[in-house]
Amino acid sequence: MKGSLKACIGLFSTMTLLAGCVDMPHPFGDPGPEGRRLALTTPPPRLAVPTPPDSLLDNTASALWAREVATQLVDQSLPAVAQPAKPGDWWLKLSATLQGSDVTPHYVVMMPNGEARGHWDAAPVPASVWAQGEKPVLSSLAAASAPQISSVLTGIQAAMMQADPHSLKRRPAKVYFKGVKGAPGDGNVSLARAFTASFPDRHDQLQSTPKDADYSVEAIVTVSDGPAGTTGHPSQHIEISWRTVAADGKEAGAATQLHDIDAHSLDGPWGDVAMAAASEAAGGVHQIITNYSGRDHKPLPPETPATKK
């Protein structure tokens, strides 16, 4: 058994980070009651994109531009809606100006208090082309502009987090570890002990109860029979999924470890395998929390006269 365990220490060298942990901005995600308490300035869960009155387009083309922008923002995982802005809404102000023989589209994010943030211009379009208001042109413009809009919204969220002493930019995340289930041998206990030892750092701290936790983590181990292998020895497929859930109950992500092992080689003590797996998983969970919370995003600088056009 000892030899088998040593051979397995490297089996967790590949880890997959599943949905929710990608580096995706969440400037308009509703964090639930606990999340709202921890980030008091969280924006509402929608960005309005009204039809622009100053677009140098007719009404039909202006409405089409707003719809195309909203569609592209949804593709960026931002819940934008092409509709008039209501009191208390965040909204995107679109406009365009004629400069010589070209038209320059403008974008501004408007906050609920009326403050304008993130002024920027798209690439100029020939005025003769712009005036036609054709869908391919407006769709291409929206697709090119959506990443910049997303970046500005992420920067605004980061600036708000920076100003909030309760946000995860200003304090460590509180994490409740629910333990390990389904492991053969002593894996449930060994993995839990190893994760508890490996996980805490200056960014994330473990706590013994779920009360007021920002995130909870639970590991689920699944073992299934695998192919006989090239040497005819039976094998098993092992999967360890470290599921990370935010305070509002939404899954922030899952770090999943996969490997084929000699059959029943982990039916006894896990030994160093537990420490190797848990140490790698701890890094994956740190990344999930960082990406989901947005705590590493760079704050958008304050507006200056030079950026206001």
UniProtKB/TrEMBL annotation:
Species of origin: Asaia siamensis
Protein name: Lipoprotein
Keyword presence, Signal: yes
Superkingdom classification of source: Bacteria
Signal sequence residues: 1-19
PROSITE patterns for this protein: PROKAR_LIPOPROTEIN
Keyword annotations of the record: Signal
